[in-house]
Amino acid sequence: TDRAVMTDTWLKKHRLIYLGATRHPFILGIRDGSVDLSSFKRWLGQDYIFVRAFVPFVASVLLKAWKESDDNADIDVILGGVAALNDEIAWFKTEASKWGVALEVVPQQINLNYCRFLESLTSPDVDYTQAITAFWAVETVYQESFAHCLEEGSKTPEELKQTCHRWGNDGFGQYCRTLKSIADRRLEKASKEVVAKAELNLLSILEHEVEFWNMSHGAV
Ligand code: HMH
Question: Residue 137 domain-assigned?
Answer without folding.
Answer: yes
